[in-house]
Amino acid sequence: MVEKRGNMGTQIILIVILIGVAAGMLSGLVGVGGGLIIVPALVYFVGLSQHSAQGTSLGLILLPVGILGVLTYYKQGHIDIKIVSLLAIGFIAGSYFGSKIALSLSQETVKKFFAVLMILVAVKMIFLDKKKEEKASTVGLHKTD
What we know:
mainly alpha; 80% helix; 0% strand
């Protein structure tokens, strides 16, 4: 079911703008924003359903809202256009099939899946990435040029 919102009050407008600022800042800072910031914020602060929040987040990334961040990274040589192109192809297909699956599931199932995914990513980053980083630095110390 699609949610239709009438006139938004000033408070909701400010909350949505602040969500956008937070997501934009995190996107520029660490490359996240849509799923990790926008979706839960729209659910909890604006009152959208999980499906509507996910659809709204996808609608955002289809627009060139991140163009200034992209240009800044590109100018510094931190964007590989070939990889971006390949990611875009995969993202197009993945977003189509992912949206079909998500819309066929209940709100509660999608919320739980999303929450479990965030927990798994957090656990990996907190406990497993450190070990890989230490291994890489140890290997780097024994490397001969």
